[in-house]
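--- STAGE predict ---
source: upstream dedup step, 1 unique chain passed
mode: sequence only
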Amino acid sequence: MSQSSVLLEVIATTVADARLAVQAGADRLELITATGEGGLTPSVGLIEEVVGVGDCPVNVIVRPHSRSFVFDADDYAVMLRDVQAVKAAGAHGVVIGMLTPDGEIDREGLARVIDAADGLAITFHRAFDEARDQRRALDVLLGFDAVTNVLTSGGKPSALQAEATIRALVKQAEGSNCTVLAGAGLTVDSVAGFVRATQVKAVHFGSGVRVDGNAMAPVDPQRVARVRSLLDNA
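--- STAGE serialize ---
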């Protein structure tokens, strides 16, 4: 990846996905299982195998269930153990997100996960899009040095519907060590214009780089390669 190029993160749900995405030019993988539920914690076996695919950084989602982003003490007990397992498996980072019942970032829960992650990169996932006030939520996250990415669609079902919001968040995060990672709804055809409009430095692709644009289908290496080429020339 050239210095000026936009980082390309691709969702992987299998070892084959990971291999195809990396060969076609992904800069980073987000490893999840249960795509239909928005992504849940994958098995240790899957994490270890995907980490072994190559030099590409692997960020692993730690999300114990898909009921909500408000977690109880038992959920946190599970998540903290999973974070430790992700670290032991050699992953680059964890992808997490937690809110209070009134839609604020759960600072205390986030601090506990950061502590358990012990130096791993932290991406705060699209729980962010359910926060009551995104600008305030980003301010909270910018207060945590360990949070290196915020995955967001700008609070809309698709990031393409939220260009102005995402541009504002990118501006807000300027000069911090946290990157706004735009994702959800991006397509091969839309990505170049989206990057120009928002000035994002990192994009996240799931169904947009899968066979027939189907979230449940395998990664399509030709689509990944096309996005890579568009980003390199954006």
